[in-house]
Amino acid sequence: MKKYLFAALTMLVGMSCNGNNNGTAEAQKPTADDEANTEKGKTIVIFFSHAGENYSVGNIEVGNTKIVADYISEITGADQFEIVCEKDYNMPYDKLIEVAKKEANDGELPAYKGKVENLGDYDTVFIGGPIWWGTYPQVMFTFFRDNDLSGKTIFPFTTHEGSGLGSTVKDLKNAYPKADIKEGFSMYGHDVRKGRDRVEKWLKRIGF
Question: Which residues, in sequence order, are CB contacts of 97 under 8 Å at separation 6+?
């Protein structure tokens, strides 16, 4: 009889130690994903996008790059700042090509509207734009001149019709030699409206 009582008491003690009771549960430890998100800190998507007449997709109300930027924000919860040029680019595509070429050749730095509030609070920055003459549009270089992203982690992305990332990675490294420029992402402009899955796969690959 004593043997059975001892066995029963042993079982009860074991159940209590394993947490099978009605007391307050212990606080859960942070998961690896929680720790990774904390390490990334605040994230922002900074981009320039061109609506109106675009090569291959015709006249569009929402620019190709904005669509990708929206995907990134939806998936990661990142804030956004859209670089809006004070110059009007609402013109036929053929004329826009000539304007973009002249800006690039002249090293023009067109003015843009607004500014990023509390830029210093962000640790990770996605920087996106279309490819105009092999790299980002010149107005983005105005932004680079005006805003110091040293010490931040930067992920470039582009929309294009055959140029890929162009020289954007090299140009970002030149603009921000003290930033950590990471793996970039590019997508054909005519694919972006059905390309959310591709953006999501890239984000998962880079840890988001």
Answer: none
